[in-house]
Amino acid sequence: EVQLVESGGGLVQAGGSLRLSCAASGFTFDGHAIGWFRQAPGKEREGVSCISSSDGSTYYADSVKGRFTISNDNAKNTVYLQMNSLKPEDTAVYYCAAGPAGGLDYDEYDYWGQGTQVTVSS
């Protein structure tokens, strides 16, 4: 059974940092891309970042470029999202997802975690 489990969310003040983790089981990252998405109340789910396991290429939404960094540890089957200089508008439930193609379009992803809440206070 494929499972993705996010952790690391929480409450942080504006300007602070959090590191999210996405641990996978039931499949290996090889041949997959892992993406991070977020959804704030009343808003559509948006792509934040993704990483390709094949060549390590990364992509970021404009809203997080320079502040967020995605990385992977294939030996641990875990992908991380380091979030710095957090802003109140980063508040959302953050999801990780796995798919064959990557990118920031959630339609490209087959497997999803349950999400972790990130709240940034002003």
Distance N to C terminus: 40 Å
The geometry reads as globular
Strand content: over 45%
Count the DSSP helices.
Answer: 0
Number of strands: 11
**Overall pLDDT score:** 94
Order of helices and strands: EEEEEEEEEEE
Global structural class:
mainly beta
Spans of at least 5 consecutive residues whose pLDDT stays below 50 are none
As a percent range, the share of helical residues equals under 10%
The largest sheet, given as strand count, sense and whether it forms a barrel, is: 7 strands, mixed
As a whole number of angstroms, the C-alpha radius of gyration is: 13 Å
Explain what this protein looks like in three dimensions.
The chain contains no helices and eleven strands. The mean pLDDT is 94. It has strands spanning 3-7, 10-13, 18-25, 33-39, 46-52, 58-60, 68-73, 78-83, 92-99, 111-112, 116-121. The radius of gyration is 13 Å and the shape is globular. A hairpin with a 5-residue loop joins strand 5 (46-52) and strand 6. With 122 residues, it is mostly beta strands. The protein is 0% helix and 51% strand. Strands 2, 4, 5, 6, 9, 10 and 11 form a seven-stranded mixed beta sheet that branches. Strands 1-3-8-7 form a four-stranded antiparallel beta sheet, with no helix packed on it.
In short:
Helix content is 0%, strand content 51%. It is mainly β and 122 residues long.
Write the layout of secondary structure elements.
Elements: E1 3-7, E2 10-13, E3 18-25, E4 33-39, E5 46-52, E6 58-60, E7 68-73, E8 78-83, E9 92-99, E10 111-112, E11 116-121
Parallel strand pairs: 2-11
Antiparallel strand pairs: 1-3, 3-8, 4-5, 4-9, 5-6, 7-8, 9-10, 9-11
